[in-house]
Amino acid sequence: MPLYLRFVQKSVTFARASGIALDSTYFAKGLGWVLLTEYNIIILLQALIDTGVGSLFLFQFSGIKATKRNLVPWILLTSFGYIIWSLTYVLGVQISIRVAYVLFIHVPLMLLLMLKFEISPFTVVLINFLSYFLISPSNIFCRLMLYLVEWLKLPISIHLAQAIAWLLTIPVIFIPEYKYLIFPLRDMITQSKTDRSFLLVVTAICFVLTFAANISLGGQESPGQFLLSGLFVILLVAYLACLAFYARILHAHEEDRTRLLAISIQNKSLALYTDSLASFLEETSVLRHDQRHLLLTLDAFAKQQDLESIRRILDEKIAIFDTAPVRVAQDGAVNAIMDLYRKRAANVNVDIQITGKGFDHFPIPSYDLCIMLSNSLENAITATASAENRNRTVTIHTTRNEETGVASLVVSNPCTVPVSFGKDGLPESTNGPQHGYGTRSIQSIVRKYGGVCEFSTAGKEFVFRAAFFTKTRLDSVCS
Q1: Read out DSSP for 380-405?
Q2: DSSP characters for 18-43?
Q3: What is the pLDDT of residues 422-441, one digit of tens each?
Q4: Which of 34, 48, 273, 316 is deepest in the core (most CB within 10 A)?
Q5: What's the distance, Cα to Cα, between the start and end of the chain in Å?
Q6: What is the DSSP letter of 156?
Q7: CB contact at 8 A, 466 and 451
Q8: Kindly report the CA angle at 281 between 280 and 287, in degrees rounded to 5?
Q9: Nearest alpha carbon to residue 451 among 464, 437, 466
């Protein structure tokens, strides 16, 4: 018996002789746990790795930023949970270590996600299941390492082998999962409610099977049980891979849906522009036909020196030209988009002002330029229409630096409500995670052509900036 346990037993015997009722067995065992035996070091190491990796996965799945304000309550609650978890063992509470870990660490952290970070219970349960699945393969990896040590008859203790195995799970298991599975699975969480409900049901079933398998296969295993456990983990990894693949398909489908929506807007705007142009040509034809009569009328008023009548007629005819569609580019589709959103803005008493070099110098096809403009103007007009101030103007400014070859676009609009930004720098939609595809589409288009973009707030304005290198500049750089 270790010396410190003998000391504890003598101390407990003395205390009981003094009338203090203590259980020497539990107390000695508990103090031994506190003093960290080799077995308990392995338990603590496993728990710390599970908690650290699990917290990382939970933060990524939930989209919570790892700021000091968010990390401090998380760390404090986790530390308090570890203290309570340790006391259950020290005081000899008749409860499983796993159950105590779930009660004092898992459950409080789930409540923290719901109460402080205001994440729905549905999403909290789902991300908890997914995090559990990503951690589960580490158990079979550690068992495999132990069998390998026994088979090779390496001259190291079983506890040291366990410690090494658990440390190896970080580069072998968790880093690849973080790199290849986290972000596709996170996209799954942001899908429609129907898709998430299906995912939750399937995940819950797999969670129950996984938990049952871990309990039934706990402790010492025969080679047959080990193979069964290994097969189960292989199926589990295949399940996660299928989820990730399905998430990528959904993400691609969502991008296609956004692109088709933009094409639909473009087609409507082209039809509107065509009608406007046809009307303008018809009015011009009528004006040309009536030009002879107009000149005769003006000549008659001039002979009578009736300047007021001449001015009235001229103002009426000039107004016809003022109603013509405004051209902002050589491309008809771009003009159509701008004409469409000018009319939409006018319907909600919003003005659109365009300054700068125009849109002809942007080194991207008109198709993607129309999509980028339609998405940015749609958001800007909506925000301006709901702004609680007198400034109801959306400003579009374009520039081109001849020396550097940089073409830039800046769209700004009034913004009277706070805007939060995600980790990717995109503004978070107030309508939920299933919205906000317009800004994602804009970012995708800008990056597609080697540009950079930024969404920000400046005072009471929301500003979108995009910059592209023109073809001339790119050719000069390459040469």
Answers
A1: HHHHHHT-SSS--EEEEEEEEETTTT
A2: TT----HHHHHHHHHHHT--HHHHHH
A3: 777 788 766 544 445 678 87
A4: 273
A5: 79
A6: S
A7: yes
A8: 90
A9: 466
3-state secondary structure of 95: coil
Mean pLDDT (whole number) for 137-160: 80
The per-residue b/e assignment along 113-139, b for 16 or more CB within 10 angstroms, e otherwise, is beeeeebeeebbbbbbbbbbbbbbbbb
Decide the pairing of beta strands 351-356 and 393-401.
parallel
% of the chain residues with pLDDT over 90 = 4
* Cβ-based neighbour number of residue 143 at 10 Å: 19
- Per DSSP, the three-state class of 458 is strand
Collapsing DSSP states into helix, strand and coil, what is residue 47?
A: helix
Q: Measured between alpha carbons, how far is 360 from 354 in angstroms, rounded to an integer?
A: 14
Mapping DSSP onto H, E and C, the string for 323-380 reads CCCCCCCCCHHHHHHHHHHHHHHHHCCCEEEEEECCCCCCCCCHHHHHHHHHHHHHHH
Q: Which of 197, 174, 194, 178 is nearest to 186 (CA)?
A: 178
Two tokens at 113?
């996600």
Token pair, residue 414, equals: 């009034």
DSSP string, 217-246: T-SS--HHHHHHHHHHHHHHHHHHHHHHHH
The domains located in the chain, with CATH, are: 3-255 (no CATH), 350-479 (3.30.565.10)
